[in-house]
Amino acid sequence: MDLNEQLAARQARARERMDELAIDVLLLSVGADLPYLTGYEAMPLERLTMLVLPRGGESILVVPELEAPRVEPRPGAFELRTWSETEDPIAIVAGLVGPAARSVAIGDQTWARFVLRIQDAVPAARMHPASVVTSPLRVVKDSTEVEALRAAAHAVDAVGAEMRGRPFGGRTELDIHREFSDRILEHGHERVNFAIVGSGPNGASPHHEASARVVNDGDVVVCDFGGTMDGYCSDITRMFVVGEPSAEVRDVYDLLVDAQEHAVRAATVGTSCEAVDATARRIIAAGGYGDRFIHRTGHGIGLEAHEDPYLVSGNRTPLEPGHAFSIEPGIYFPGRFGMRLEDIVVASDDGPDRLNAAPRDLAIVG
Amino acid sequence: MDLNEQLAARQARARERMDELAIDVLLLSVGADLPYLTGYEAMPLERLTMLVLPRGGESILVVPELEAPRVEPRPGAFELRTWSETEDPIAIVAGLVGPAARSVAIGDQTWARFVLRIQDAVPAARMHPASVVTSPLRVVKDSTEVEALRAAAHAVDAVGAEMRGRPFGGRTELDIHREFSDRILEHGHERVNFAIVGSGPNGASPHHEASARVVNDGDVVVCDFGGTMDGYCSDITRMFVVGEPSAEVRDVYDLLVDAQEHAVRAATVGTSCEAVDATARRIIAAGGYGDRFIHRTGHGIGLEAHEDPYLVSGNRTPLEPGHAFSIEPGIYFPGRFGMRLEDIVVASDDGPDRLNAAPRDLAIVG
Predict the structure, then answer these.
(1) Which residues of B166-179 are buried (b: 16+ CB within 10 A; e: fewer)?
(2) Which H/E stretch holds residue A12?
(3) Confidence of residue B209 (pLDDT cuts 50, 70, 90)
(4) DSSP one-letter code for B319
(5) Which chain A residues touch B if contact means CB-CB below 8 Å?
(6) A323 neighbors A140 (Cβ within 8 angstroms)
(7) Structural domains of chain B, ranges and CATH numbers in brackets
């Protein structure tokens, strides 16, 4: 199946789902739903790009005139409607939606400024997030998508393995961050999405951004990095220590490895998302660190770095073949250090398919 | 005035503006309004970060627990309210907004998924984009902000000047893009926002992204690049040609330089935004290329790469001292090449203050 056929098939499934939910029109702008259904990604700017996909009609992609040259024509997937600098794109979209629309789904990441204006322009339509239509489609990856995720995972595996041979001590987090970023690109990603380098106390902040802090002897360093390769995301966390780790660090890390390993094995088809989360949480709690595991166990991954399904308490969704997600328990000691270990896993009928293969033991670096 | 005092003063002005507009609560998430008023930037992720700033009460910053360590406390600017993975942040925000709110302003770039849920949770409140409150504040840069923009401009000036001595021919656009990006960081930016390298026919696509195309002898190359330095954005476009330019290329470029120069000189206090646009457009039209100048003349710049004021037909706003914006006319020949020339200018009582100083003549490169 070539891309045009694939896009047509995906749009057909989106229309089926719209039928089920009685949604008249799907409106997509920034975010991954648009490339999923059209192959085109909107620029996150103040000039509106929006796909208007009616349940029973042809899709129209509304694009600023100056960005039209970026759009690869997809005759089966959409017709192009450009707007010039003195036209109002909201009026164009509202005209395409039409006055009869009663139920509209709009891309989850669409900017509020556009949402509010479209609501004013089609006041009779009730608005829903587009994910009610698209998430059930996107959450199940087909074999091509799984292989794209696998290729991206192997690329960051190579980065993780290479960094084990590199010095950390005496360098700033930012300098190490730059090296991770460069290597992510060198290994074939088109984009770096993040490269967290959390050294010493900074590692206790799960979403720490690399800073000017100089990495010291004895520091534990959380490295969580990923990007986008051929449209699909990678995401991996590996742990580094400068010099010999203390007994405490070794013990905490052994517990984390155990929790992660059990959670990966638990990620079988039919198991609920929250049960996988509970598996990791139970082991860390039994080790005495339950209150230091302050986030969910994982998130789905695909065209977006974070998407459905989320491995979190309260999510009773059973895993299906093709669900792709991170498994990344963490243990954090404010003011001292943090640890996290993360791989991407795909649920399959043959059991959990762990995409990452970079060494998982503590990397002792200079 | 230290940052805490500055944030308090900005919040006081936001509250005055809310009084004028009878807006009860301001809700800010991703985007630049939040750092402008709190010094904190929300992560663009599925976990909601939101400032709740009531007209007559204290500001509360609602933040995911795992991101709380990233938040620098600002006792005068906000109190922190963290939410754990099993709490619902929408309910927390709705509780803080309160049932009496009738008019709420929400950050222009807030994701639709949050906008729709907040609308459901506070159904009696009419929603407006936050820019009705914040734009009149942010559009006038104070002297500290102008100096931050100037420093960022000088950094990309240095990149532009350096690249005049570098080879272009035989390299891919992506490779040159990487070099621009690296140099933007080396010159002190914390983030690269874009580095357009549009060679030959790709230059006719104003928002072209660097591709695998190899730059050829004779190619005209549009290089439009910028980043964020100490929170403020840079943005500059310079033109490169591989080898001797043709007479046509020289003529078109001379016309463009003339149009840009006159538009810069026209950007005096009291002149309308659309009059500056018209100045550039008139000169290009007189040269015979009016239909090839397919975008507005410029955009405001500050904490965001694109913000008010926009230099576009229909915008009658008169320029005020402290307005900062790009002046970037372009001429595009589909299938052949494009040209654009851009500087950042600040309107001041002493006349237009052009921040960029990198050489503006065609750079002839190898």
Answers:
(1) eebbebbbbebbbb
(2) helix A3-21
(3) confident
(4) P
(5) 43, 45-46, 65-67, 69-70, 84-86, 106-113, 115-116, 127-131, 178, 185, 204-209, 294-296, 299, 306, 312-314, 334
(6) yes
(7) 3-137 (3.40.350.10), 143-365 (3.90.230.10)
For residue A93, which phi and psi values (nearest 5 degrees)?
-60, -45
Hey, which residues does A54 pair with through a beta bridge? A25
Q: Token digits for B314?
A: 């229909």
Interface of B with A (CB under 8 A): 43, 45-46, 65-67, 69-70, 84-86, 106-113, 115-116, 127-131, 178, 185, 204-209, 294-296, 299, 306, 312-314, 334
Distance in angstroms (rounded) separating the CA atoms of residues A184 and A133: 33
Cis peptide before A75 (omega within 30 of 0): no
Contact B164, B361 (CB under 8 A): no
- Which tens digits make up the pLDDT trace of B98-127? 999 999 999 999 999 999 999 999 999 999
Nearest to A185 by CA among A230, A227, A144: A227
Question: What's the whole-number mean pLDDT along residues B27-52?
Answer: 97
- A313's tokens: 């308490």
pLDDT digits 0-9 by tens, A10-19: 999 999 999 9
Question: Whole-prediction pTM value?
Answer: 0.95
Residues of A in contact with B128 (CB under 8 A): 116
